[in-house]
Amino acid sequence: MAINKKYAIDKNRVVYKVVDKETIILDLNNGNYYSLNDSAAFIWESLSTGKNLDEIIGSMKKSFPAEENALKENTIHLLKKLEKINLIKKA
């Protein structure tokens, strides 16, 4: 996956809200709810501000104590999952 790749939240398909540091997402097409933990919520919020993969990983390095490689792999894994279930799309 290209490091400068950008994704966007599909705002026509989902609504979301942060509740007590947890992001709750509702897929309007099928009624499914999703709950994101701290790091996944951080990535989701970064997507909502238009950050690309490189920018997201850079921000995560400042906020989460993990190796850069692990942050990158986990972020890419989450983005692929979110894209697969159509909550985000390539920008």
Secondary structure: elements and pairs:
Elements lengths: L6 E3 L4 E6 L2 E6 L5 E4 L1 H11 L4 H11 L4 H17 L3 E3 L1
Antiparallel strand pairs: 1-5, 2-3, 3-4
**Looking at the chains present, what oligomeric state does this protein adopt?**
single chain
Strand order of the biggest β-sheet: 2-3-4
Q: Please report the number of helical segments.
A: 3
Note the run of SSEs as H and E: EEEEHHHE
Uncertain regions: pLDDT < 50 for 5+ in a row? none
The helicity comes to: 40-55%
Average pLDDT taken over every residue: 92
The profile of the biggest β sheet is: 3 strands, antiparallel
| Fold-level CATH name | Outer Surface Protein A, domain 3
Number of domains: 1
N-to-C span:
14 Å
- Strand content bin: 15-25%
Q: What general outline do the C-alpha atoms trace?
A: globular
Q: What is the structural class?
A: alpha+beta
Number of strands: 5
CATH architecture: Alpha-Beta Complex
Summarize the structure in short.
By secondary structure, the protein is α+β, with helices and mostly antiparallel strands. It is built from three helices and five strands; from the N terminus they run E-E-E-E-H-H-H-E. Strands 2-3-4 form a three-stranded antiparallel β-sheet. A two-stranded antiparallel sheet has the order 1-5.
